[in-house]
């Protein structure tokens, strides 16, 4: 059988009930080609959910539980597709998600694609703040070169991913931003504002939007300052 046109990697740590929604949204994809789904799972219920779902091609046991970056790298190493897509186990993707990401790679120069986030939970506050922080922020930053593919809505060309050695396993925070910035030397990164995903706002509820913005600001400063690293284990 020929290699798939795209591979989807889903890191899932103790996400049994939420993972079911994610996999259901992947099963509903309208994509003319062939794509595979790899779940990097830990926790008995999460592993069971992943193994039971028909859309999942492979389950990789995340015995290290070292964070999303290492989990995504392990998943990527088990894939065969030309394009790697990443989402999270608390995220629901639209039926056109794989197709919209994949079509950008018809342009040879494109090495990565990112899109906006919307809240799974209802409420005006969540909708407004997600639009501001997880869409307009990206639209403002992308033209300046500060590209930030969110980990639950991003894709990369395999050759570029391998050229930059994937996600940095040493980063417990901003690993997706770091990958995006390193990918710039390999080609063009596209922000597709019409390709959103719905993701859980539980972190925002737990931490608060104000404190979350402060955590990111400090993380960005740690990232750019010599001798510092955004090693927070917040996520």
Automatic annotation (TrEMBL):
Residues 7-131 form the Glycosyltransferase 2-like domain. Its EC number is 2.4.-.-. GO terms for molecular function: glycosyltransferase activity. The keyword Glycosyltransferase applies. Keywords: Cell membrane, Glycosyltransferase, Membrane, Transferase. It comes from Natrinema salsiterrestre. Gene3D superfamilies: Spore Coat Polysaccharide Biosynthesis Protein SpsA, Chain A. InterPro entries: Glyco_trans_2-like, Nucleotide-diphossugar_trans. This is Glycosyltransferase. It is an enzyme of class 2 (transferase). GO terms for cellular component: plasma membrane. It is found in: Cell membrane.
